[in-house]
Amino acid sequence: MDGLTLALLLAGVLTGVLTGLLPGLHVNTLAAVGLAVLPAVGLPGLLFILAVGTVHTVVNILPATFLGVPDEDDVLVMLPAHRLLQEGRGQEAVMVSAAASLLAVLIATALHPVYTWLLVGPPGLLGRLDAVLPVALGIAALALIVSERHRGLRGLAWAVALLGLSGILGLWALDLPVRSWLPVPPTPLLPLLGGLFGAPGLVVALRSGEPLAVQAPPRRQRLPGRPVAAGIALAGITAVLPGVTGAVATTLAPRRREEPLDAVAALSAINTAHAVLAVQVLWIAGRVRTGLAEAAERLVPGLHAGAAATGDILATLLLAGACGALATVALAVPMARHADRLPSRALAAATLGFLVLVVVAATGPVGLGLFVVAALLGLVPLAAGVRRVHLAGCLLVPVFTWSL
Amino acid sequence: MHPPWRLLGASLLVAAGLQNLVPMDPVHIDVADASDHDGSRVRMAGAVRSVQQYGPDVSRFVLVQEGYGVAARLEGPLPVGQGEWVEASGRLDRSQGRLTFFIDALAAASPPPPQAPAWSQVAQDPQAWSDRWIRLEGTVIEGRMHGDGASVHMGEGPWPETGHVAATGVLAYEPKCLCHAFHAHAVHPWTD
Q: Which residues of B touch A178 (CB under 8 A)?
């Protein structure tokens, strides 16, 4: 790597840390902004974008955990992570997430030759996996509903209702004519997911004014290897499937409610591995599956045709993953130390205000209306005493209908 | 916390209000503005070129208008030929990273009045006149249309074997012949 490339790489790491701390900001939005402002510098620009994106997907566990505001991919990670924060184990959740994400980057890059062989070699999985998707999504939806069985018929009924209603909301939202005032493609997912998963927690915090629990120092934890390995394997499949984002990939993960750290580890591993493997799918098979991969393809058209950049790309992913994990762990310490002393009402109000501002700027008044609709629906599971994870129907149902 | 039914009702009420206030019909845009409407449902009109049929299930082509083009995808066989003017509605989205018009409905439409460049202008800079709705007058001889000392390869269209014609359609670069071809929507006998 030459001096310019290394400088852009380090700048990418720093930028990824900063953007990862902003609540609600998704890596696809970053990739679009990056494309708009980056000069056409080819491979160094690509490495910058990859560094930003990889670090961002690791660091964004911090606002998801401490503020309860996830971006698109972190909606399901946020739920157990924020619950752990409320139990005083926020730092533990963040460290497990960072470790799982780092492991995911290491394994995803180390297994690049194996992944290439599986996709385009004799097993030829690239074409065969598309048929799996409707079945997998149906099973995931059923699993979500059945997880409420301990609350009886009422719990099951609410689970079905929330899955269905959020699914209809997701389908409806995609046809809304949102307009962006920023130089980025508008997406209804920002107000949809910000409203369903971000706003309700902030509204509750505003009303209750209860300070966060005192955060205990993290206990020495063994990384739950099996959930992480399962998460990476699942991401290897979902990175290939059309229409499956990191967020949808996390809804397909099997989870055990009684082990929130396992859920945090598995979901963090899926998120990070999905982002990293989607870039690999681009240069193995020329298929674009994420905004990050799309930005990569536009910066270096024909990336998949050449192996010359492989070493630089793999090195970037590894370096960015390691830096992202280190930054996350380092930042978690002061955030956890001061979490209980922060004025929770003011913090919730500021975060909610920031989220609304981003929604309006990125999606206009129509997006704001969608945000309100989604936020009201997002409060329903809190009021009904059932899990908010059923609102993932907003992602599952649209992808299911497209996959048929 | 309000009861869940009240919150649900409020959500539905706001959604109904939004549905009534916001025009849900696809907005009509020019092909030149397609990238500004990435992710939106739109209607566009333009000429068809570079048609590729992937079996009976998928048709891909480029929709062109005033020198701009956007990749288009239609489920099923394309009901029109190259050089035809169409109006289509669907969603603009990304496919393999490329902005693509996923068409729900497409029909032949009345074309706008064509521009009428001189043969010398087309010959000097064919790329500038590509993907534009133009009218050329000339003579058809052995697969080429001739006029004013220049000529162009004839693409698809209701071309006669020979004769003087006035043709309306689009000029497009064809990799097969490493040349520009004129795909005609309409060809009329022309007498000077």
A: 39-40
**Residue A175 with chain B: CB contacts under 8 Å:** 24, 41
* Residues B8-32 pLDDT 10s: 999 999 999 998 888 777 888 999 9
Give the burial class of A135: count Cβ atoms within 10 A of its Cβ; 0-12 exposed, 13-18 middle, 19 or more buried: exposed
| DSSP assignment of B66-119 | TTEEEEEEEES--SS-TT-EEEEEEEEEEETTEEEEEEEEEEE-PPPPPB---H
> What's residue A305's pLDDT?
47
CB pairs under 8 A between A and B: 75
Structure tokens at A85: 């924060």
Task: Kindly tell me the burial class for residue A181, based on how many C-beta atoms sit within 10 Å of its own C-beta (0-12, 13-18, 19 or more).
Answer: exposed
Give pLDDT, residue A189.
78
Mean of pLDDT over chain A? 78
Q: What does the pLDDT look like over B169-178, one tens digit per residue?
A: 999 888 877 8
Residue A115's CB is within 10 A of a number of other CB atoms, namely 21
User: CB-based contact (8 Å) between A157 and chain B?
Assistant: no
Contact A376 B8 (CB under 8 A): yes
Of B3, B22, B96, the CB nearest to A177: B22
Helix (H) or strand (E) run with residue A171 in it? helix A152-174
User: Which residue on chain B is closest to A291 by alpha carbon?
Assistant: B97
**Distance to chain B for A376, nearest Cα, Å:** 5
